[in-house]
Every structure is written in structure tokens, then in C-alpha cells.
Design brief:
With 291 residues, the protein is an alpha/beta fold. The protein has a single domain, classed as Vaccinia Virus protein VP39 (Rossmann fold), CATH 3.40.50. It is 36% helix and 18% strand. The chain has nine helices and nine strands. β3, α4 and β4 form a beta-alpha-beta unit.
Length: 291
């Protein structure tokens, strides 16, 4: 297996997947495993059911997560990319005051509750996780309960979809880091256009739009897209400076970074970091700042 060049050195998936071992642990994956024309054992990554089975197997085998179920229409997060974010965040956490343990604020946890599950498994961190969708939170709570993680992961409902920190944070909240994987699209139509382009590049039919990682409108889209969401995130972080030692977010569009850095300087950020990060074949980045 080839090392994936952009993954963090601590990432358990940097050498690829052992699909035989994963199928032994999670037999539901086996029907999706096949040998392609290059004589490589793989799965069809355009098939959302195959992708979900693979990620469920990874969680069970490598992180001890025994229950991870959510509706098929909800976003299925790719485990290697999600855990990579957390490994990079761990470097920031080392610099914070951790006398009372590390507590992370997860913005937009989704139905899968993925960052809290991985963060607790890898680093024993505690989490408060938020979302605007009550159905997603209900499912996330079910995952937490089934894995007996209620003492380590707490959920909060963000009632106003236009806000991020406002209405969520308590006066006495003190987090080491906030994390966020923002919605990338302005609308569901824009998300569908991106999926169509992806399917064409893979040589797949575009008659029916099927996202390999699925995703609901609230998970994928925000009015104004990624740029609008991130600037709301930046501004509201300046209103709650004492709540988090570090604020962080993924940024998919490189062109947004310079504008965000300028905004943060105007808002009084004392230190700003841009951390390059691999997510499989994609290159992403983490923006981190502290007041």
C-alpha cells in the first residue's frame, strides 16, 4: 500500500484500507468489495451504501465504535479526513491550559456525531456538539447512548439557523478549541451541480443524482455559501472571545483565506494560523485563530 502523502503522520488510514480485515470485522461491507480491472481490491466509491459500509467498518475496527447508524439521506463523513482534522487540532490543544481536561466545541455535528466519536476515541477529549437540525441531534444522541458516551459528549440545539455561537454558549463555557466543517454550497441546486460534475469525471451516469457521501440541504448548504457562513463564524467568535482558547474551521476554497485573515486582524485576533491538510485526493486547510 502507498502512503497517502497529505495525511497526518498519526492518521491510521495513511496506508489505505485493508478491506479483507474490515470485512471480517464488519461483514456487511463484504458484498461491496471487488477486484477492479487493475487487479486492485476496492469498492465502488460512487455508491453511497458502499461508502457508508466502509466508514462504519473503519469506526468499528479502528476506533471501537460499535453502533453508528443514521438515515441514508444524512451526510456520511469520510473517516480518514475527519480524524486528520483532529490530529492537527491536537497540536493546538497542547498549547492550551488543560488542567481541567480538554473540552471541544463541535459546530454542526450532524446525525453522525463523527468528530466527538473520533476525538474521544483518539484523545479522550470531552465535547459539546451543536446542530440546527433536531432530527440530526436526536440521532446523534442515540449514537452517544448506544456507545455509552453520555458522560463525555453533550448536545445543544442551535435554534437560529443564521447564527453559530450566539444562543449556544453559556457564560461559564470554557473550551480549548472550536471545530467546524462548514456547509460548502449556497443552495441544494448548487450542491447538485457539483455532484453532476463529479459523476461525469468518474464516468458515471448523471440521469439520477446520487451523492456518494449523501447529505441533506441543511448539512450541505447555507445562504451565501461557504464564504457567508465563515464570515459569520469569524464575527461571532469575536463576540465570544473568552469562550474558546482557539477557534478553528475547515476552509475548502483557498481563495477565501486571505479575506478571512484580513477580517480576523480587524476583529482583533492575536494569532492566526493556516494549516494545510490532506483529505484523501483533496487538499484542504484549517484556519485557526485566538484572541
Amino acid at each position: 500500500m502507498k502512503t497517502t502523502p497529505n495525511f497526518h503522520p498519526k492518521n491510521k488510514h495513511k496506508l489505505g484500507y485493508d478491506l479483507e480485515a474490515l470485512s471480517n470485522v464488519f461483514p456487511e461491507l463484504e458484498p461491496f468489495v471487488f477486484e477492479n480491472r487493475h487487479q486492485t481490491i476496492t469498492i465502488d466509491f460512487a455508491n453511497p451504501k458502499a461508502v457508508k459500509a466502509l466508514n462504519t467498518a473503519l469506526l468499528l475496527k479502528d476506533y471501537g465504535i460499535k453502533f453508528w447508524e443514521f438515515p441514508d439521506e444524512n451526510l456520511c463523513p469520510p473517516i480518514p479526513g475527519r480524524v486528520d482534522y483532529l490530529h492537527h487540532i491536537a497540536h493546538l490543544v497542547k498549547k492550551t491550559n488543560t488542567e481541567n481536561g480538554v473540552k471541544i466545541l463541535d459546530i454542526g455535528t450532524g446525525a453522525s456525531c463523527i468528530y466527538p466519536l473520533l476525538g474521544h476515541a483518539e484523545y479522550n477529549w470531552e465535547f459539546v456538539a451543536t446542530d440546527i437540525d433536531q432530527k440530526s441531534l436526536k440521532n446523534a444522541q442515540r449514537i452517544i447512548d448506544k456507545n455509552k458516551l453520555g458522560n463525555f459528549i453533550k448536545l445543544r440545539h442551535q435554534e437560529n439557523s443564521a447564527e453559530i455561537f450566539n444562543g449556544i454558549l453559556d457564560e461559564d463555557d470554557a473550551f480549548s478549541v472550536s471545530i467546524c466543517n462548514p456547509p460548502f454550497f449556497n443552495s441544494e441546486e448548487e450542491a447538485n451541480e457539483a455532484t453532476t460534475r463529479k459523476l461525469k469525471n468518474l464516468g458515471k451516469s448523471t440521469d439520477k443524482i446520487v451523492r456518494n457521501f449523501s447529505g441533506t440541504n441543511s448539512e450541505l448548504a447555507y445562504k451565501g455559501g461557504e464564504k457567508a457562513f465563515l464570515h459569520t463564524y469569524l464575527y461571532e467568535s469575536s463576540l465570544h472571545k473568552a469562550s474558546c482558547e482557539w477557534f478553528t474551521t475547515l476552509v475548502s476554497k483557498k481563495d477565501l483565506v486571505k479575506g478571512m485573515q484580513k477580517s480576523l486582524k480587524k476583529l482583533g485576533a492575536k494569532e492566526i494560523k493556516v494549516i494545510s491538510m490532506g483529505q484523501g485526493n483533496k487538499v484542504s486547510r484549517i484556519l485557526a485563530w485566538t484572541f
